């Protein structure tokens, strides 16, 4: 099969090779001896793959390896008891190996793909939407009628978080760096859009009548203190990632003075060790698709030969929605 491998950890320009290698067996590292084999049509491109080209991600297999954490495609084979069977359209999280014509996922990470969604949207469904649900609902305790500020709101996690928050009856304020990204956030369903270049903290306080209930933060960096100041009493700042580059530090007296919380949300390690949690989140995501709240926003799409360009869109802050590798023609 054709696949993209990371052959050296020298960054997206030089780390990748397109290769012809044997297709994987139906066995996944999380469920040895068992797995759902998928004929891959579209692969999602995300920060883990970018970080892996630099050897900077926690999942660090020996070189060379095929990256790619999630796919949309058709089931080739599935173990007894799986939610999918041969021939079904599927959205699957494989952690590694997605940038290839055939990939393998654990049974608990393979979900039937509804007719409303195409393969690219299937490849955009698990990492971002499961993270959004985990961060907002399970870690952030989102309640109906609350207001949520979302950083990086035009990105993959950002657009997913807007849609999940709306599904739970929240009001959403999207924080973005450009007007074009504001349009993407609005397309995802944001109620309000604020630019980072504005005096954004004051604007957010004004729009929320004094402060938001939750800040969803995949960006980190020097915005963190203003994020804390944007919370109302009992507010929660949910830490999701650090695309801004630096890991912020918090002076805990701010939490005492404001009666606020900082909450960590690390979906991957949590979900991989708990299949039942993943099934619960998967069922919630399925309901939100059926109810019309979830429609993944697809950004740029690339053929396999241009995998490096796909990773560069993330690296250069140009990505909107989910970046897709079309493994088979769309
Ligand atoms: N905790 C978890 O379980 C979990 C799960 C999935 C992903 N993540 C993490 O969440 C983060 C976001 O992932 P994503 O897929 O949403 O990425 P993305 O689509 O590229 O969006 C990230 C956003 O970050 C903002 N940003 C600010 N400074 C940036 C910079 N220097 N370089 C790039 N972007 C910058 C950009 O928005 P503006 O230009 O509008 O500021 C961009 O749209 C990543 O760090 C990822 O590893 C965490």
Secondary-structure blueprint:
Elements: E1 2-6, E2 16-20, E3 36-45, H1 47-52, E4 70-77, E5 89-93, E6 102-105, E7 110-112, H2 119-122, H3 127-139, E8 147-150, H4 156-167, E9 171-176, H5 179-188, E10 192-195, H6 200-207, E11 212-217, H7 224-229, E12 231-239, H8 253-258, E13 261-264, H9 267-272, H10 275-290, E14 298-303, H11 307-315, E15 322-326
Parallel strand pairs: 8-9, 8-11, 9-10, 11-12, 12-13, 14-15
Antiparallel strand pairs: 1-2, 3-4, 3-6, 3-15, 4-5, 5-7
The structure holds NADP nicotinamide-adenine-dinucleotide phosphate (NAP).
Residues 46-47, 127, 131, 152, 154-158, 176-177, 181, 196, 218-219, 240-245, 265-268, 314, 317, 319 line the site of NADP nicotinamide-adenine-dinucleotide phosphate.
Short description:
With 330 residues, this protein is of the alpha/beta class. The chain is built from eleven helices and 15 strands. 29% of the residues lie in helices and 25% in strands.
